[in-house]
Amino acid sequence: MLNRNSDHDGSAATVSSTDVDPDPTRDREEHTPLTPADLLDGIEAVRNELQQVIRGKADVIDSVLIAMLAEGSVLLEDVPGVGKTTLAKSIAALIDLEFQRVQCTPDLLPADILGSSIFQPATGTFDFRAGPIFCDLLIADEINRASPRTQSALLESMAEGQVTIDGRRYDLKQPFVVIATQNPSGFEGTFPLPESQLDRFLLRLSMNYPDHDNEVELLLHQPTDDPDFKLEPVMHRDDLVHLQSFVRQVQVDRKIAKYVVELACATRRDSRLRVGCSPRGSKMLLRASQARAVLLGRDFVVPDDIQSLAEQVIGHRVALRSVSGTSEEATQIVRELVQQTEVPV
């Protein structure tokens, strides 16, 4: 049982600090690994600090942290101005992650994200200039405004933790997480993410508007500068890597695994769905559930973990038969199937 001690230069788009070292093994300041209890205290401190920046969104904060613990990426889908980018930047500051931000536009090229080889006349050689993807946390703002060619540049990195540039493979550093944002209500000049790329995101989340009281507090306590720039790290990046290793060791009972498969099969049988949850979707749901268990201080998965995350993990991995259907309808179907599927005891 896990116990706590206490209960950016691009002509096509704005790209931050592209002169980064592509070598993930570069020397870093030495850090002594903490005990499991200390690690849990660290992630709890991150949660508490984030709740002071993003008010009234504890569930969204927990979901993003779960994705990071599960080594997955997140798609934040909502209208502008609700704190999507602020949340991502605040997490980077609190865990001392090296982050890069890319503002996606239709003329953004894959090389603006991955990097490219630059010819040096003095030496007659090509030197590789790494792109912003060589970081711990990549923030891709308004990803659906990038062209499909540029969107696909992220596929290999999110799925395999590596990129291939000019025929050479570069392993990305650990941890590596993509937090992408998009506005679902503005379709002018956008390129909807294809199903194959949506599947690379572990979770799809919506921030939604704050409630009345929290919005009043936000107005009364807004600082003169962005709050995330004043945040000090409360957790080391290496501690996040250690927590990720704990996630992979969380116990999963056979009944839990069967429950996940039965839920996935229910989506494949439903007549309203053209595409059901794939085996990769089942695997991602279980991995996210393991991460939720660690976040809550457990070393085993319970059915509530599956039920709490099913909509966020499976909702964007199914496709409706109706061409006029919306993502909200698909999520509603998944919600119904969760309620109908027998829970193991």
Overview features:
five-stranded parallel β-sheet, Helicase, Ruva Protein, domain 3, Rossmann fold, alpha/beta, single chain, 2 domains, 13 helices
Structural commentary:
- With 345 residues, the protein is α/β, with parallel strands linked by helices.
- The chain has 2 domains: 1-249, Rossmann fold (3-Layer(aba) Sandwich); 250-345, Orthogonal Bundle (Helicase, Ruva Protein, domain 3).
- The chain has 13 helices and 11 strands.
- It has helices spanning 36-53, 58-69, 84-94, 110-114, 148-152, 155-160, 195-198, 212-220, 237-249, 254-269, 279-295, 303-314, 327-340, and strands spanning 74-77, 99-103, 115-120, 125-130, 137-141, 162-165, 168-171, 177-182, 203-205, 273-275, 319-320.
- Strands 2-5-8-1-9 form a 5-stranded parallel beta sheet.
- Strand 6 and strand 7 form a beta hairpin.
- Helix 1 packs across helix 2, helix 1 packs across helix 9 (237-249) and helix 12 (303-314) runs antiparallel to helix 13 (327-340).
- Residues 4-20 and 24-28 have low confidence and may be disordered.
Summarize, please.
By secondary structure, the protein is of the alpha/beta class.
- Give the CATH class of the largest domain: Alpha Beta
Between the first and last Cα atoms, what is the distance in angstroms?
20 Å
Content of β-strand = 5-15%
* Superfamily (CATH H level) name of the largest domain: P-loop containing nucleotide triphosphate hydrolases
Q: Number of folding domains?
A: 2
Q: Averaged pLDDT, please?
A: 84
